[in-house]
Amino acid sequence: MNKTVLAAAVASLMTHIPTSFAQEAADSTPKSQTQETMVVTANRFEQPVGKVTATVEYVTKDQLENLQIKSLSEALALLPGVQVAQNGGRGQSSSVYIRGSASNHVVVLYNGVRIGSATTGSANFTAIPLAGVERIELVKGARAAVYGADAIGGVINIITSSGASENTAIIKAGLGSDKYRQAGAGYSGKLGDKSWLNLSVNTEAAEGFDVGGTGPSQPDNDGYSRKDVNFEVGTLISDSWSANFMGFYHHSNSDYESYDGKAPDEQESELYNYAGSITYDIGRFSSVLSLSTNKDSSDNFGGTTNGSHLVTKRHAASIVNIYRINAQWVMNAGLDFTQDSVADSNIYSSGKYQKYGKTGRSNQAIFVSSLWGFDSTQLEASIRQDGNSVYGQNTTWQLGAGYQLNQNIRFVASGGTAFQAPTYNNLYWPGYGNEDLQPEESLNFEAGAEVYTELADFRVIGYSNTITNLINYQSKGEDLKNSDAHIKGIELSSTFDTGNLSHSVSMDFLDHKNKVNVAGWGKPEDIQTKKLNRRANFVAKWFVSYEYNAIRTDLSYQYQGKRFDDTKNTTELAPYSLVNWSLSYQVDPNWVVRAKIDNLLNEQYETAYKYNTQDRAYYLNTAYQF
Questions:
Q1: pLDDT of residue 263
Q2: 197 contact partners, CB below 8 Å, separation of at least 6
Q3: What share of the chain is helix, strand, coil (3-state, %, to 5)?
Q4: How far apart are alpha carbons 216 and 237 in whole angstroms?
């Protein structure tokens, strides 16, 4: 095996260890699985997606470029089982729901390193940069036995380019509606025979439009601006040792609507993540030690009253070991340590600045995984023990099985437990938090079949997720409370060609129930079963692409059924259909020009109550590589 390639792969995946390598075929339409594609997120090491027992989705660099995706939430919305709600247009806060689970029920990784806010419990999907991204992987279902707290709905891993086979550079620029403008550049090259450097920078801004909102009318444009940097430097120390250092930095300013016309209506966000790793590989045994530090901060200002300054600082360390016992049996074991701090946060509440009741917590964990492959059968098992300084001990497990009936048909089934830790806002926000809240816990099962034929590929997956101690967000003045929720659904997806057209289609059927205190008095008759907010029972997606010589065009259609905006189900959001169109022209091997129309039919719709969405918008961009 080429050791330089191995070092590059390890560098990009940080705490994931490769066991084999394969060239990923470039594809244009978002698709779910191909048996040749290698993924790393499911079990923290590289394996063929056709051997994973969980449901894995991915978006490649080619798809991001061809569909001209500009944000992580926009990329995730392409995938089956994912719904997105946003408080307005680009640059505004967004929530991502995977198989009906909440936005804070997903672990978000950047090259294998956890990022996100301990105050909200969720990653800032709007702010995470896509500069330099090679692939986005999504593993659905409970993965807490591998990744720990919050992996109730799944795990998202943003993987950037790593290694360098030759020296290349690229420059990009774009313009669009609402005075959108963008510029970026990137470089990838060798530093001698055994080292490499990757660097990407991007700047983007728009004047935006009036996003509306539930407060008094403020007829002004709500724009944004952002700057992003992504980098990686790595080296091959010897045949067995390699090391790397990588990270990203993000800074943005955005306008939003004040809830009462007086509160802050501007936000400044800063995110960074820096991580280093050293890897030892002697074939049958591999080990990687990684250290990381990251920050997620938001400063709210601009109104006639003061705003809060919320900061999460996280330091983490992990060691992951893999032992290939034989060709059929692989063992994976590791230790994770995390220290969170919100000591720099200042909460403006009741006319004064206050601190959280507690400002730090730590978590230590040990996990063990085992994978077996015998003829047509794949089995996997994982167990993890987390010890937290605030909410104590949690043990999680997962089991999975796959059976290849023949060359064309494969059956899969998996199950596991997961939990989500109460956030600092849940526990300690002045006048709102509840220190008696317990961690949310879930029991997840899924089963399905994958069919691969010359004409089309099909997949059907049924799943069930029972969440106990779900934290319900009540009206102002009420304590947060734990309750129970049950989510079940079916995902159907297929990829196929008709002539020169390539298609990817999916349908999601969701049934979800949540017990809610509708009156706030705590009487038994006040507890009613409601739908989870902002989650539709039915979603359909269709993507089609056509390529002829130097021209390529893509058309996407997404249908979102009706859903409720609030937990008490008093405000219904209407269904909508969204159509986007994009066009690419390869002028020469180094120069490409692209155009896109978002919301081609100028649909008027809401993903959050009273928040306006983007009207028909036009974009033009170009990239030159040399």
A1: 67
A2: 164, 187, 188, 189, 190, 191, 231, 232, 233
A3: 5, 55, 35
A4: 61
Q: HEC profile for 357-416?
A: CCCEEEEEEEEEEEEEEECCEEEEEEEEEEEECCCEEEEEEEEEEEEECCCCEEEEEEEE
Give every CB contact of residue 625 below 8 A, 6+ residues apart in sequence.
168, 169, 170, 590, 591
Distant-in-sequence, close-in-space partners of 480: CB < 8 Å, separation ≥ 6: 426, 432, 433, 434, 437, 471, 472, 473, 474
Provide the token pair at 214.
């539930």
Alpha carbon separation from 623 to 130, 198, 204, 248 (Å, rounded):
15, 17, 15, 22
CATH of domain 3-625: 2.40.170.20
Q: How far apart are the first and last CA of the chain?
A: 29
Give Cβ neighbours of residue 393 (< 8 Å, ≥ 6 apart).
385, 386, 387
**Which residue is it, tokens 């020009």?**
593
Domain residue ranges of the chain, discontinuous segments joined by +: 3-625
pLDDT per position as a tens digit, 75-85: 999 999 999 99
Q: pLDDT tens across 225-262, in order?
A: 999 999 999 999 999 999 999 999 999 999 887 766 66
Q: Which two tokens stand for residue 426?
A: 């849940």
Q: Is the dihedral of CA 107, 108, 109, 114 positive or negative?
A: negative
Strand, coil or helix: what is 148? coil
CB atoms within 10 A of CB 239: 10
Q: What angle do CA 57, 174, 296 make, to 5 degrees?
A: 55
Is the separation of the CB atoms in 212 and 88 below 8 Å? yes
pLDDT tens-digit readout, 463-502: 999 999 888 765 444 445 667 899 999 999 999 999 999 9
Contact 234, 208 (CB under 8 A): no
CB-CB contact of 186 with 200 (8 Å): yes
Residue 385: alpha-carbon gap to chain centroid = 24
- The model's pTM is 0.92
